[in-house]
Design brief:
about 160 residues; mainly alpha; about 0% strand; binds magnesium ion
Length: about 160
């Protein structure tokens, strides 16, 4: 699956009012970047390995909001994709993703352009996926499968990861 096909399909699952355009996915991105950190925190507490499947699901959630931001500002997702690298540890990439989400929210608040931050967010996502031996293509396919399942059960409008 290519990035823009993902973006087009993800957009069909976007359920938020036009008045919340851009703000909604910016806030959502912050929340999901926090959920990535939360997954890492849980493994610290339990002493067990990171819940790989759970973390991959969160990467899909993060990507969905990045894709929605791109849609809302009128650019393609592929335009913000940088070559993936694994120069960072998983923890360092997660922290950088979290910081970048904050930078995007801060940019939004100040009315600044936010697209310059998006490539870094995608790069950190790709880096985390790489550490999990997962490709971003797999993240996209899995995220859309989750959303399709929700769509079929008419659960897109609820809240929470267990819908
Ligand atoms: Mg999530």
């Amino acid at each position: 699956m290519d990035w823009n096909t993902y973006q087009a399909q993800a957009a069909t699952t976007a359920v938020y009012p036009i008045s919340a355009k851009l703000q909604y996915p910016v806030f959502g991105l912050c929340g999901e970047a926090g959920e990535v950190m939360e997954r890492l925190k849980r493994s610290l507490r339990s002493g067990k390995p990171i819940d790989r499947d759970g973390l991959i699901d969160e990467l899909g959630d993060v990507l969905w909001y990045i894709s929605a931001i791109c849609t809302d500002i009128g650019i393609t997702l592929s335009a913000v994709v940088m070559p993936s690298g694994s120069d960072f540890t998983l923890v360092a990439a997660a922290i950088r993703l979290y910081k970048t989400a904050g930078d995007i929210a801060s940019g939004y608040l100040r009315g600044r352009l936010i697209h310059p931050y998006l490539p870094k967010a995608v790069q950190m996502l790709s880096c985390i996926a790489h550490h999990l031996d997962f490709s971003m293509q797999d993240v996209m396919v899995r995220n859309l499968a989750k959303l399709k399942d929700r769509q079929e059960r008419n659960k897109l409008q609820g809240e929470g990861g267990d819908r």
